[in-house]
């Protein structure tokens, strides 16, 4: 009986490995961006470019900034295998001081959640060129 169960388990394991479904797969050019010093009140935009290295179309379900100070623009149409797209994160730079923000991407990719990072320091206009 044990041999039959072990054989059946082995067959099921082998079958499940063979039936792995194709997936979409992000290949990012970068996942972090450092703005350095930015002038207060002048929004800045980080662009994060990716290619779908998977076997099926990549669909981004949502892309959200970590706070209301970040607007996010992302492709609404599916990205076909081998094609590229860009996520744009615009930070409003309203408050003085250091910032460290994220953009959370939800998709049908192999790793369904991706977190992009950007940081910098908002300074008064007269300090931004030093």
Tell how many strands the DSSP assignment holds.
Answer: 8
Distance between the amino and carboxyl termini = 78 Å
Helicity range: 10-25%
From N to C, what is the helix and strand string?
Answer: HEEEEEEEE
Q: Estimate the mean pLDDT confidence.
A: 89
CATH topology, what is it called? Immunoglobulin-like
Specify the oligomeric state. single chain
> How are strands sequenced across the largest beta sheet?
1-3-6-5
- Counting structural domains, the number is 1
Radius of gyration from the alpha-carbon trace, in angstroms: 21 Å
Largest sheet at a glance?
4 strands, antiparallel
Q: Which structural class do you get from the secondary structure elements?
A: mainly beta
What is the overall silhouette? elongated
CATH architecture: Sandwich
The named CATH superfamily: Immunoglobulins
What low-confidence regions span 5 or more consecutive residues with pLDDT below 50?
none
Strand content range:
over 45%
CATH class: Mainly Beta
Number of helices: 1
Protein name: DUF1573 domain-containing protein
InterPro entries: DUF1573 (IPR011467), Ig-like_fold (IPR013783)
Signal peptide: 1-20
Keywords: Signal
In short:
The chain has 130 residues and is mostly beta strands. It contains 1 helix and 8 strands, in the order H-E-E-E-E-E-E-E-E. It has one domain (22-127): Immunoglobulins (Immunoglobulin-like, Sandwich).
């Amino acid at each position: 009986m044990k041999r039959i169960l072990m054989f059946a388990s082995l067959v099921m394991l082998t079958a499940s490995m063979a039936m792995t479904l194709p997936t979409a797969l992000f290949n990012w050019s970068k996942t972090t961006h450092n703005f350095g010093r930015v002038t207060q009140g002048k929004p800045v935009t980080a662009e994060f470019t990716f290619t779908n290295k998977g076997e099926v179309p990549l669909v981004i379900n949502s892309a959200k900034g970590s706070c209301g100070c970040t607007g996010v623009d992302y492709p609404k149409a599916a990205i076909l295998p081998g094609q590229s797209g860009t996520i744009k994160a615009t930070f409003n730079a309203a408050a003085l001081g250091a910032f460290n923000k994220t953009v959370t991407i939800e998709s049908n990719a192999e790793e369904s959640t991706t977190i992009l990072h950007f940081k910098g320091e908002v300074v008064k206009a007269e300090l931004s060129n030093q």
